Amino acid sequence: MNKEGMTLIVRTVTRISVWLIILYGIYIALHGHLTPGGGFAGGVIISLAFLNVTLAYGRKFTSRWLDIGLLGDIEASSASLILALGIMGMAFGGGFLANFLSHGKLFHLVSAGTIPIYNILIGAKVGMALFVVVWTLAITRIGEEEEQ
Amino acid sequence: MTVYVLCFALFLVGVYGVLTKRDLIKIILSTGIMGYSANLFLILFAYKKGAIYPILSKGEEIKAMVDPLPQALVLTSIVIELGITAMLVALAIKLYEKYKTFDITKIRRLSG
Amino acid sequence: MILPFFVIIPLLAAFLITLISGKKDNWAIILSILAELSVLVLAVFCYFFKLDDVFVYSMSGWKIPYTICLVQDALSCFMLIVISTIALMSLIFSVTYIRHLVTSWRYYALFMLLVTGMNGVIVTGDLFNLFVFMEIALFSAYALVSYGRKAEEFEAAFKYAIMGSVSSSLILVGIAITYSYTSSLTMATIAETLKTKPVEVTYWLGGLFLAGFGLKAAMVPFHAWLPDAHSSAPAPISSMLSGVLIKSLGVYTIVRLFFNVFGAPALFGTLLLVFGTLSIIVASFLAIGQWDIKRLLAYSSISQIGFILVGFGVGNFLGILGAIFHLLSHAIFKSLLFYNTGAVEMALGTRDMRQMGDLRKALPVTSFTSMVGSLAIMGMPPFNGFFSKLFIIMALIKAKLYFVAFLVVGGSILTIAYFVKFQRYGFRGDRVIEKDMVKEPISFGMKFSMGFLAVLCLLTSVMLIPGIREAVIDPVINVIANKTGYIQSVLSGR
Predict the structure, then answer these.
(1) Where do the domains of chain C lie?
(2) Which residues pair with residue C56 across a beta bridge?
(3) Is the pLDDT at B92 greater than 90, yes or no?
(4) Which residues contact C226 (CB under 8 A, 6 or more apart)?
């Protein structure tokens, strides 16, 4: 199976490192209120992990390994959840997107109210969205129009 | 002062690229350069002499910090330009499929 | 209270359409029409019940200089009604038209994003938020222009996207300079701080913003993307772009920035006059020579935006009244005319006027409403186009700008010329087209939207009867004419 994807060395290293990259992305997205980074940077790293698999193993393998429709659904549902959380912020007093959970202690992981939740949701959305966009560009033989 | 002049020079490089290059991909890259120079300009304004990054770590007292607002603006701006660049690249792929060339002087079916 | 919902409802609709749509687009259509209808109901509610108050809504409940605030005054209500009406009519029109091109739910999701972006631009009171929503709307516009997947559409979308990115970078540099002078991004605080600085600062900023937003509004040195983009797009998208997008992103932001934030120094009025007159004359000359029916309408859009800019440039009460009314009427009749060309294109399969004929028997509703639209844009008396052009010319004469008034009257005469050409070759040509030569029949949805807009052409002239005018349009004009009174209303009504 050497026609698609890259050589054996790249594939072996990718098999190990992809999970580490996803873990790193989740770490950066989750600690957005303590360290630099946040939702968007974490999401880009997660999508780069999937892109790594696509480059190393080829398109056919990746389309069997990942369900692209599921990724699109995750993206749209996390976007709707962000809006729903914002509206809940309105219901609890304060404006749209208010910070209505307890603020917790400084420097702890579970603190600062709703900000970590937003970071996770944005990370999921951005990660899936970027990967779906690049995937759509990569399968240009099939006539699809531009997606988000 | 020199930093601002160099930033403006980067912007002019981007404008030169958009105006004179004939290859589609080079035009897309030049719009990217213009976007980068605008973001750089935005961050340069946030600098105060002798201040450090605006992150509070455990056990440090609060010193003078640079302005964090333009950093949030630049983050948003980078995301927007990422989307626009993705759209431009998709359009370039479709244009290549239809016109079989990347040369912008040959992609001229609309005129008048 | 209800201000964020103008943005939340279309955005939620866009994401839900992506979630729940499979191969067919029935749910997408129902959801998008429901969303648009609710936005229109909200806009009408705001307009008719709360016109004199200014609503300020701070996001996340923080205080004003530290947060993004949403501001609603009379001008925003007015623009929201215009956008929502035209968007609803475009949705009804596109149910059949898009099925004829390609069945897909993606069109509706992109359309909802376009509406989100435009509503966001109108409702926001913060400068960078305006930039973000403007980019959302433009992004959807670039994608929608190329929706039919023909070769010319991609070329037009590419040109539009490149020019749009250049102007967006210019606007971003302008926002950076504004932030460095005033260290705030809320428009009201910027206005307050700029009052204490010398006027030359606003000249520099105004130049940058005029170049950036002027490209979105298709003023003449920056208009080159418009004929390609508006003529290649599918008909309901052309009507949305030409009818509301260039006014919401271009004219509204220029007016808001120049009048309310910068306080309208005299130089800006002169600049708007110069560019506006140039747009009218140049675009009219270019429109006369066109044989493609949609390209002619696209050049006509550039020319009518010139009228609106001249009206704002004059600056006195009559000028602003004429400009606002022309904004409303142009949205209505230009959308109507684009629907007509869409129907003709669907029926005959061509856009070249030399190949069309006498369409009065084959497409009766289309030719009748196109006659109504053409009479309105030419400026014939009971239609709304007459009143708006009359007010603009009267305002110019009152301000003693006789040469500009002469040029504007010349532009109106040229408008009559090319619309007579439009009617003569497009709808009353030499060979008679029978009903059986029509390729696809026009459905009820398309006829309904065309008829509704034609009726609106007549009805909106009623808004100028003096008693109704004072209640309905005067608050809008006072927001603009009051220039920096905007600061007072925003900062006190928190």
Answers:
(1) 149-492
(2) C71
(3) no
(4) C218, C246, C298, C301, C302
Helix (H, G, I), strand (E, B) or coil at C398: helix
Cα(A114)–Cα(A110) distance, integer angstroms = 10
pLDDT digits (tens, 9 = 90+) for C154-213: 888 888 899 999 999 999 999 988 888 887 788 878 887 887 877 777 888 888 888 888
- Amino acid type, C140: S
CA distance A55 to B59: 44
Instruction: Give the model confidence (pLDDT) of B33-91 as tens digits.
Output: 999 999 999 888 877 776 677 766 665 666 677 777 888 889 889 989 988 998 898 88
pLDDT attached to residue C132: 92
Q: Find the closest chain B residue to A41 by CA distance.
A: B75
Which SS3 state, helix, strand or coil, does residue C429 take? coil
| Token pair 């240009």: residue | A140
Do the Cβ atoms of C143 and A96 come within 8 Å?
Answer: no
Say yes or no for a CB contact (<8 Å) between A107 and B75.
no
**Predicted structure pTM score:** 0.90
Size of interface A-B (CB pairs under 8 A): 22
Q: Are B75 and A43 in contact (CB under 8 A)?
A: no
The lowest-confidence range among B62-66, C215-219, C243-247 is: B62-66
- Using DSSP's 3-state secondary structure scheme, residue C441 falls into coil
pLDDT tens per residue across span C389-401 = 888 888 888 888 8
Q: Residue C55 and residue C2: Cα distance in Å, rounded?
A: 10
| H/E run at residue C56 | strand C55-58
| Chains contacting chain B through 3 or more C-beta pairs under 8 A | A, C
Per-residue tokens: A2 = 């050497």
Pick from B9-13, B104-108, C206-210, C366-370 the range whose average pLDDT is largest.
B9-13
DSSP B49-60: TT-B-S---TT-
Tally of CB atoms within 10 A around C179: 21
For chain B, list the domains and their CATH numbers: 2-99 (1.10.287.3510)
Domain boundaries, chain A: 8-138
- For residue A49 the two structure tokens come to 């992990």
Q: Which chains touch A (3 or more CB pairs under 8 A)?
A: B, C
Other CB atoms within a 10 A radius of the CB of residue C35 amount to 24
How far is residue A128's CA from residue C15's CA, in Å, rounded to a whole number? 14
* Angstrom distance (rounded) from CA C110 to CA C156: 18
Instruction: Please compute, for residue B5, the number of CA atoms within 13 A of its CA located in the half-sphere on the CB side.
Output: 2
